[in-house]
Amino acid sequence: MHAGVWAALGPLLWACGLALQGGMLYPRESPSRERKELDGLWSFRADFSENRHQGFEQQWYRTPLRESGPTLDMPVPSSFNDVGQDRQLRNFVGWVWYEREVTLPQRWTQDLGTRVVLRIGSAHYYAIVWVNGVHVAEHEGGHLPFEADISKLVQSGPLSSCRITIAINNTLTPHTLPPGTILHKTDPAMYPKGYFVQNTNFDFFNYAGLHRPVLVYTTPTTYIDDITVTTGVDQDTGLVDYQIFVQGNEYFQLEVYLLDQEGKVVAQGTGGRGQLQVPNAHLWWPYLMHEHPAYLYSLEVRLTAQTAAGAVSDFYTLPVGIRTVAVTEHQFLINGKPFYFHGVNKHEDADIRGKGFDWPLLVKDFSLLRWLGANAFRTSHYPYAEEVMQLCDRYGIVVIDESPGVGIVLVQSYGNESLQHHLEVMEELVRRDKNHPAVVMWSVANEPASFLKPAGYYFKTVIAHTKALDPSRPVTFVTNTNYEADLGAPYVDVICVNSYYSWYHDYGHLEVIQLQLATEFENWYRTYQKPIIQSEYGAAAIAGFHQDPPVMFSEEYQKAVLEQYHLVLDQRRKDYVVGELIWNFADFMTNQSPQRVIGNKKGIFTRQRQPKAAAFLLRERYWKLANETMYHQSSMKSRCLENSPFNF
Ligand code: BDP
């Protein structure tokens, strides 16, 4: 590794191989739990020093950040890149520093029976956290939450305020997920001193910062640490298997109640593990597959324990959807019925905030998904915010939950170090998302170089590990490799394949699409006899560009490509094709290159979420598909026709 990479990374290397500890239940309020959100303005400084290490040399975490130099106001959650006017900050690679003073309620700092936890929804890519100058956590990976128990620190003095400092490094190396490389260019005739670039092999801007909510929450010191729920169906009876992990005490009682949407207890149990049986259960159905989709029960867990200080109780309520998922040679089944994915690939991406979580944006996106008649999306190409997954549960939008394994194309990224990290990321992802009924499949990677020799062992291991972590869901990875050369395909449950006919080759030749796509489907199916999802297809269109007959980059061309794909999809979905996901839901930011016009324009909506012509085409198609394939009950069909914007 080039010395400069070490400089850019710094303490990143301390923490390789951190073991996964404890549960990662989403912090919810309950009679025993409180939360305090730390969204808003934080103090911020990027470390522009040559080795990017001044912050550590001068220990910026020791005293308030304003005392070690000038600071900016930085909104959280947000990427730091696009909120200012500074080109250097937009493209910054290295350590940035965030800081926030927090005043905690007195009870939190004085009641020793209270556990105070700091939770960071996501910090891209590597983070080190201090509270009042004391190191409390480190985390690698930009898309999954991490926590630190800060009770001792905040309960040790008379102060009820604390200073939270978070240093974040966005450098990507061959062993990070996603991987990248740092290239130093040293020709003094061409590049200024210290010039280096971050190269990546993925097609989205490497936004960085505190992208998701940061909060402090409490639990009692004896507390419900984790819950795992899996569900099944036996005729009309719903089966809810639960397992509960408790921390802080060996002696405790657990009571478990399952409540329906009216608040009625429909099943109950005791102890840390068991099965609840729900007669005449309302199943969790995807949007457009049932007249009451997305039915959620509430699993109320009540913990009581005796401690030296007296009786302690903890309460946690988990939404539970009862549903099954299965895969046959040619079908994807939800609740035993064939399910056809008609949806989108997304990105967490928007103007100004970059990858920062934003409620209005989230609600807008779900409005558009429902308008479109989309029943599914893939979290391309990394895990999305927990709040997104919760809405999928509530609206019945089915999710293929993807890891940040995107752009794995270098041989160095297939070594043991990368593999170990990939396994850990899958553990973190499954731990976080295992209880979401909307999640029906894990995707361990997108378009890796799965033809390289070590890829076979690598994917065999990652997929087997993921299945061991969660035997209740199928596993895939998304390929664009030729069916003969793909070393990972034997291990997946569903073949997810991306293609860009008449876009990245045969430019403008729409007439090749049907032949090439049909041939590809046949080859994959003949070789593997597994269901296939067209996990990406599309074409770029710059909103407002019109050309007829169609020409690349016009709205007409984007529509025409889609129409050609749909002809083949309509033939093959009767056989073994089980889904189609357009690339992409909306235009999104990428690195600068002559191939990209202020980002990738393959959205059917603009980055501002306004429809291009292709959005109307897809809307018509998705509602038609819903009416044709999704309704298993005649009463539903009439209701759907009523609600459908189209009359078929
Ligand atoms: C696919 C990638 C996706 C890209 C897309 C494209 O999976 O991330 O954005 O190509 O080129 O191969 O638009």
In short:
One of its GO terms (molecular function) is signaling receptor binding. This protein is α+β, with helices and mostly antiparallel strands and 648 residues long.
Structure description:
The protein has 648 residues and is α+β, with helices and mostly antiparallel strands. It folds into 3 domains: 34-170 and 206-219, Jelly Rolls, CATH 2.60.120; 221-320, Immunoglobulins (Immunoglobulin-like, Sandwich); 341-538 and 572-589 and 608-630, Alpha-Beta Barrel (TIM Barrel). It has 13 helices and 32 strands. An 8-stranded parallel barrel has the order 25-26-27-28-29-30-31-32, surrounded by 5 helices. Strand 26 (376-378), helix 7 and strand 27 form a beta-alpha-beta unit. It is globular. Bound molecules: beta-D-glucopyranuronic acid. Beta-D-glucopyranuronic acid is lined by residues 203, 381, 446-447, 480, 498, 536, 583, 600, 602. Beta-D-glucopyranuronic acid binds at residues 203, 381, 446-447, 480, 498, 536, 583, 600, 602. Keywords: Glycoprotein, Glycosidase, Hydrolase, Lysosome, Signal. It comes from Ailuropoda melanoleuca. One of its GO terms (molecular function) is signaling receptor binding. It is found in: Lysosome. Homotetramer.
Ordered list of secondary-structure elements with their pairings:
Blueprint: H1 3-9, E1 35-37, E2 40-46, H2 54-57, E3 72-76, H3 87-90, E4 95-103, H4 106-110, E5 114-120, E6 123-124, E7 126-131, E8 134-140, E9 146-149, H5 151-154, E10 161-169, E11 180-184, E12 196-200, E13 209-210, E14 214-220, E15 223-234, E16 237-247, E17 252-259, E18 265-270, E19 273-278, E20 297-307, E21 310-320, E22 325-327, E23 332-334, E24 337-338, E25 341-345, H6 359-372, E26 376-378, H7 386-395, E27 398-402, H8 416-433, E28 439-446, H9 455-469, E29 475-479, E30 495-498, H10 513-528, E31 532-536, H11 555-572, E32 577-582, H12 613-630, H13 634-643
Parallel strand pairs: 25-26, 25-32, 26-27, 27-28, 28-29, 29-30, 30-31, 31-32
Antiparallel strand pairs: 1-14, 2-3, 2-4, 4-10, 5-9, 5-14, 6-13, 7-8, 7-10, 11-12, 15-16, 16-19, 17-18, 17-20, 20-21, 22-23, 23-24
Helix pairs in contact: 8-9, 10-11, 11-12
Beta-D-glucopyranuronic acid is lined by residues 203, 381, 446-447, 480, 498, 536, 583, 600, 602.
